[in-house]
Structure to design on (203 residues):
């Protein structure tokens, strides 16, 4: 775009110079035409030689040729400026179209990246939920593996002491003797109560 501007500016400078030369050439043509008109009667009367008159006539023709050449150059430069300006506008349009295409391509690429990023985020969230679910299951499994008695004591009559044991809801898997003193409610008949003593062994 800068090159196109420079070309237009250069053509305009050339046109200005050509127009200045054309103005000078027209002035010179007019002066020589006036001289030719003035010496015409003198040549007819023999006051000046025919050769001098013919030389002046040739000078007028030369000046006219120069004017014609400069007029053609002026027209050529004006046309070149118009063409350069049109090319500059076309270049601007092409550059604008190319810029729009690049912007559209960048927008499309950004949209694809956003789509991939969103997809990746959703997949990561899904994977995270799956992992969290697995952790919950593992925590529950570990929790179910720990058996906590309601009281402290000694385990006896353990049934779940072999690999692959399957618990039955109708029977206990172990029994616990509390570490504290046992408290029992005992029913004794009237006939036996007289035989009960402190510290007696219990069957």
């Amino acid at each position: 775009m800068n090159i196109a501007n420079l070309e237009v500016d250069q053509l305009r400078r050339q046109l200005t110079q050509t127009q200045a030369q054309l103005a000078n050439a027209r002035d010179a043509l007019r002066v020589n035409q006036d001289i030719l008109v003035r010496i015409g009667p003198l040549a007819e009367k023999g006051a000046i030689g025919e050769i001098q008159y013919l030389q002046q006539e040739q000078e007028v023709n030369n000046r006219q040729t120069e004017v014609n050449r400069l007029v053609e150059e002026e027209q050529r430069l004006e046309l070149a400026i118009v063409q350069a300006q049109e090319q500059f506008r076309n270049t601007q349009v092409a550059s604008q179209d190319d810029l729009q295409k690049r912007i559209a391509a960048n927008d499309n690429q950004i949209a694809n990246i956003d789509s991939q990023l969103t997809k990746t985020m959703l997949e990561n969230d899904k994977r995270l939920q799956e992992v969290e679910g697995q952790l919950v299951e593992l925590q529950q499994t570990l929790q179910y593996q720990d058996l906590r008695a309601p009281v402290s004591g000694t385990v006896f009559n353990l049934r779940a002491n072999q690999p692959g044991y399957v618990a039955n809801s109708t029977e206990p898997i172990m029994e616990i003797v509390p570490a504290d003193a046992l408290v029992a409610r005992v029913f004794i008949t009237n006939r036996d109560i007289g035989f009960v003593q402190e510290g007696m062994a219990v069957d």
About this structure: The chain is about 70% helix and 5% strand. The longest strand covers residues 153-156. Residues 191 and 197 are 14 Å apart (CA to CA). The mean pLDDT is 79.
